[in-house]
């Protein structure tokens, strides 16, 4: 049996502690005894970007990604979008980016230096507010992979993104026809109702964590502003 090797720890602002461990060639981010994310189960995070861009079908989309994680959503977006597209990533834990540039540099590649990518060390809610009030342009899509989805476990305050007020603010930060794409570890019928109550057209997709229809089932909602 291959033992897990502790690499580093990180403090979540207003929350618990994360641990980065290596298991063979794989990296895993732990929250207590829970595997929060890992390099073996990246497919649904890549699909968050791929399916969003497929639905937008725009030559130069302007995206906001909430949560860098292990960077799978960012890298998928950069791989699939054209040279005029842009991706802003909000990450609230600085150590996550240190890990990306340090022990996971081979996985990260050149993505953090891509001119189409901008990394902001802040709560994604702040960037949503900026677009909502006109401080910055509105986004064609807001992709949220924050916490565990609407049923948050990582950080106090994340749940506000998924409330009626949070959904409304995200909606108002979108350009006409824009998409709010939300990743979740599990379905949530009450959250779907809140999306619809905000006047958004909702599509729900179930995506496996690994390619070839393997791994746990995750949920992605695509809520379009009409």
Characterise this structure:
By secondary structure, this protein is of the alpha/beta class. Helix content is 27%, strand content 35%. It is built from 7 helices and 11 strands. A 7-stranded mixed β-sheet has the order 7-6-5-8-9-11-10, with helices on both faces. It starts with a strand and ends with a strand. The mean pLDDT is 93.
How many H/I helices?
A: 7
Care to count the β-strands? 11
Overall, the morphology is: globular
- Low-pLDDT ranges: none
Which strand-content bin applies to the residues?
Answer: 25-35%
Mean pLDDT: 93
Radius of gyration: 17 Å
Oligomer: single chain
User: What are the secondary-structure elements, in order, as H or E?
Assistant: EEEEHEHEHHEHEHEHEE
The separation of the N and C termini measures: 53 Å
Tell me roughly what share of residues is in helical segments: 25-40%
How are the SSEs placed, and which strands pair?
Blueprint: E1 5-11, E2 17-23, E3 26-31, E4 34-38, H1 43-56, E5 62-66, H2 72-80, E6 86-90, H3 94-101, H4 105-108, E7 117-120, H5 124-132, E8 139-144, H6 164-172, E9 174-184, H7 189-197, E10 200-210, E11 214-225
Parallel strand pairs: 5-6, 5-8, 6-7, 8-9
Antiparallel strand pairs: 1-2, 2-3, 3-4, 9-11, 10-11
């Amino acid at each position: 049996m291959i033992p897990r090797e502790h690499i580093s720890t990180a403090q979540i602002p207003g929350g618990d502690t994360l641990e980065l461990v290596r298991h063979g060639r794989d990296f895993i981010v732990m929250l207590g005894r829970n595997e929060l994310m890992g390099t073996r189960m990246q497919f649904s995070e890549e699909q968050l970007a791929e399916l969003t861009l497929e639905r937008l079908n725009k030559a130069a989309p302007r995206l906001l990604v909430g949560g860098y994680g292990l960077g799978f959503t960012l890298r998928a977006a950069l791989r699939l979008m054209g040279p005029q597209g842009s991706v802003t990533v909000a990450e609230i834990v600085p150590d996550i980016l240190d890990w990306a540039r340090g022990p996971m540099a081979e996985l990260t590649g050149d993505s953090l230096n891509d001119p189409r990518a901008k990394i902001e060390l802040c709560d994604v809610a702040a960037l949503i507010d900026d677009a909502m009030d006109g401080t910055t342009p509105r986004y064609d899509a807001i992709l949220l992979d924050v916490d565990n989805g609407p049923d948050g476990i990582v950080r106090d305050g994340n749940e506000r993104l998924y409330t009626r007020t949070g959904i409304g603010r995200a909606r108002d930060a979108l350009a006409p026809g824009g998409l709010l794409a939300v990743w979740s570890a599990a379905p949530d019928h009450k959250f779907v109702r809140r999306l619809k109550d905000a006047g958004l057209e909702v599509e729900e997709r179930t995506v496996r964590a690994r390619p070839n229809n393997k791994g746990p089932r995750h949920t992605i909602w695509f809520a379009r502003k009409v």
